[in-house]
Amino acid sequence: MDFLEGYIICPNKAKMDILEKLNQDNNFFNYSFMTLEDLKRRLTFKVKQNAVLKLSDHYNIKPEIADAYINALLMLNGSYDSKKGLFLKEIYDFLLNSNLIETDIIFINSIKNHNFTFVGYDDSLELKYVISLLTDAKVDVIYPFATLNLLHLSCHYFPIIEDEVAYVFRQIIKLIQKGINLNDIKICNLDSDYNFVIKKYLEAYKIPLELPQNKEIESTNIYHDFINHIKDGKKYQEIVELLKSNDNTILNKLIEVINAYKLYDNDPKDDLKYWPYLAKKISFDSSKYDNTIELIGMDELDFNKNKYVFLLNFNLDACKVIKDERFILDEEAQALGLDTTKSINEWTKAKLCASLNQNPNITITYSSMHSFKANNPSPLIDELNIEKIKHNDYEVGYNKVIDDLYMAKKLDDYIKYNEKNEILFKYYYDGLGYNSYDNKYKGLNKEVFHNKIRKPFTLSYTDIHNYFQCPFKYYCQKILRIDTFTPTLDAMLGSFAHAILEDFENENDSFDFEVSSKLRFEDEKNKALEERLYEFSAKDIFYFNKMKEHIKLVIEEIKAHKNHTSLNNTLCEKKMDVSLYDGNLIFKGFIDKLWYSSDKSYVAIIDYKTGKDKESLDNLIYGENLQLPVYIYLLKNDSEFKHANLVGFYLQKINIVLPKKGDGSLEEQIQKNLRLEGYTHPDYVDYIDDNRGEYLKNYKENKDTSVSKSSKIFNDKDVEDLFELVSKKVDETYNGIMNANFDITAKRIDGVNISCEYCPFVDCCYKTDKDIVELKGKKWKEEDENANE
Ligand code: SF4
Q1: What pLDDT sits at residue 671?
Q2: Domains held by the chain: number
Q3: What span, in angstroms and rounded, lies between the C-alpha atoms of 30 and 464?
Q4: Which tens digit of pLDDT belongs to each residue from 649-671?
Q5: Are residues 540 and 643 in the same domain?
Q6: Contact, 617 vs 581, CB < 8 A?
Q7: Which residue among 762, 766, 768, 769 has the greatest number of ligand 1 atoms within 8 angstroms of its CB, and so is best to mutate?
Q8: 493 and 581, same structural domain?
Q9: Under 8 Å CB-to-CB from 306, ≥6 apart: which residues?
């Protein structure tokens, strides 16, 4: 080995390379390994891990920002000579006084008689700073720079990512056939675009390769239970005991964080604000196996110069460029004696060129189309005079599965676009299995399924609606939980409007519109930031302001209506749970608003809507339009209101109204739009509107005070029928789910597919026309000839 005994300062990957060589040489040397950052920390100072939470508390900032300040502080090479430098010095002093800074005097005193060899680092100011610290401590330093050999390099060009990967795997097979050990083959520079294709080829060729784990602790059940226990007021120790199971991998990670950040004596509720940040700090190591191909990054090329490296994806991003966006900007970096992003980018490029030129067994590839996005080749191809080898042909005969898939794809192109392909015509054979995939839901083991579901089981109106639209849709959403729901601006505006109206109804005379709208806006903004790290844009704020102005008008209208109703009491967001099947099922729901008389003998249901919903009761037997009937069902199960007379059930549209030419002023249109839409009991109409129709869109009287035919009305028997119908739908849904019936069956009513239009699972169900059930539309109260469909 070329290095003098003593400390070798190198990146971790270089350490593995050096150790492997030592093993091969069968020699023993007295080396201690350390990274440049570790050495810098031991020669200067370290910041304790829990400092980030203390700093976050002290400055009342998010932990992510405190983390950024600490990272910037650790960058500094002993100089604080700028405005930001002074601020970082203030942070340093705060941490020092809080006993959160550690220094290692013993180390500094113990290194005097040792050699320090630096390997694999750029000639940066940071390196110079660390070397100067060693020189001050009178230590010998050696820094071997590698000499550069120029090789003849070539890059293989492919039209699409699939061809690129196919080529790489064919070369790997050739290496394996030549007897090359899998441990000596590396795949470099993969990004997520490649995951799907690479997995397909690994499976087809049965080649072992560990793809990185995409595990995020926040999406695990154990993390959700952990947070719920905190919310329930439990202590960390109690929570750990409650969560112990046969597999404690995730729990152990949580315990590590509690210990590292010294949280054990805290009230867990006080730490709730930190957990989104702490959870992101948790990582899972990928398992390492012998005799597998290893994935490496561009920065590891240097340590793999004796291996067979396949460098894929040699595009614009192959040579990473750092932008001048760090906490310490380039102009300040210079003053502080730090490396600028410009110099870091130059070394990165020089290092990549050197790495490419040191490996005679490197295969560089590039493809111009990745899924749906175009790709551009790395400018280094021209700069370094790398030869371009273009490939257009597919080579048949390496793997049958891959060949069949290729053939099927070409057959698709032929059938759909009449694109002819030579290989397809030459090699196509009967029995390819084209178009033979069976997408049918194949059922679940009921026992396993029942053991997995939470008890008591809960259902809501939306669950029933989704289940009736398509059981497979419900399965994906609520059992597999593969829906990645992201609230839209419309949904956020709807939640904002609902919250202000709730304040208005609950706070009565003490309601202050400005205070409520400000608070509710902040709630939405914080929710978006905390749950999705989403910051409101200028466009979002513009629409929130528009909605605020609109809701002011809505409140004025509701106030005017209140002068014409004798239902003078209000309940908002009333939670109504119904326990069924001996407590095994909880049917749950919230009603936006109930208006009721003081003695609770008359009640009206009002549901605010910001979308395009209609007050229709058509197609109830197919599970459509069940929302208002579900509210009746909940009300009739509620101890307070079960005997009340139902005056009406309505939607109230509170969305922003765009004026139409010729339809009156904006105010008039808003007034019209805000009338309650829905069904009224004609005997009780005076309770909700003493002007008998002024505030009700679907209620009109003729001159002789009889109810007009176009009115939407109901009687007591209808209430009973709707109750029974919902009860039946709840039973059907629950029994269907308990029987694990999640067939792919979408509905088409009168020629309109009501299930699939916005379904997020269209890419995984592979529905065909045979999965769609044709139904005939059913008006409310029409004869039930196909009620069992
Ligand atoms: S796309 Fe249609 S058939 Fe497929 S899961 Fe969704 S609703 Fe069901």
Answers
A1: 84
A2: 5
A3: 70
A4: 999 999 887 767 767 777 788 88
A5: yes
A6: no
A7: 762
A8: yes
A9: 184, 359, 361
